[in-house]
Amino acid sequence: MSHEGNDILDADQLHTYYGKSHILHGVSLRVGAGEIVTLLGRNGAGKTTTLRSLMGLTPPRQGRIRLFGQDVTGWPPHRIAKLGVGYVPEGRKIFGHLTVHDNLRVPAATTGRWTLDTVYDLFPRLAERRTSKGGQLSGGEQEMLAIARALLLNPRFLILDEPSQGLAPVIVDEVMKTVVAMRDEGIAVLLVEQNAWLALRDADRAYVLGDGEVVHEGSAAELAADEERVKALAGASLDTSASAAAS
């Protein structure tokens, strides 16, 4: 069944390599308008490689990528971003020597709902810390800054890699509320998340990767209801105490 027309992302049979290592073996996934889709899997399953393939950072050698109905296979990352794709990579990649305010002025201004003022409204903590250097922020504040910076491009599609990594549960909750708010604003979201419980709670649909292949796809709620299956597929527990213990 084709969903084209309503699809923000339609990736078909991606094969991606690092040098001679064949990492992705025919990965296909789609994200519809106004949808949160999560990509789960054990460490080394190919989740980050999938995101890097979609962004043109590690272009697939085979397969096709369509964004907003347009074939973008082989496009460079800046051209993909310009279409309206915001990418928050693992590790956040903010500028530690710049203030919060200057970090937010790095993206070229675009017209739309997201401006410095609306981003500060969304993240009051960043407004309070606007003169602090990026390197002085807590992990949660850095994650907010990375998301805020992506929002200033007024994306129609937001790709997030491990937004909860290393954050305390209360901050993780705040970050995920923001992700849900993005969807409610009509932004489609593709979320890679180690914390399966967290991702499945807020997502509409889920894909699970295993050794560079999609081994499961379906409703996030249905997968969340089957804890044994999540453990088997994603190597993760749905128990939130696991994330609490890690923080």
UniProtKB/TrEMBL annotation:
Pfam families: ABC_tran
Record GO terms (molecular function): ATP binding; ATP hydrolysis activity; branched-chain amino acid transmembrane transporter activity
Gene3D superfamilies: P-loop containing nucleotide triphosphate hydrolases
SMART domains found in the cross-reference section: AAA
Entry keywords, A to Z: Amino-acid transport, ATP-binding, Nucleotide-binding, Transport
Nucleotide-binding as UniProt keyword: yes
GO process annotations (BP): L-amino acid transport
Domain ABC transporter: 9-236
Family assignment from sequence similarity: Belongs to the ABC transporter superfamily.
Record protein name field: ABC transporter related protein
UniProt organism field: Salinisphaera hydrothermalis (strain C41B8)
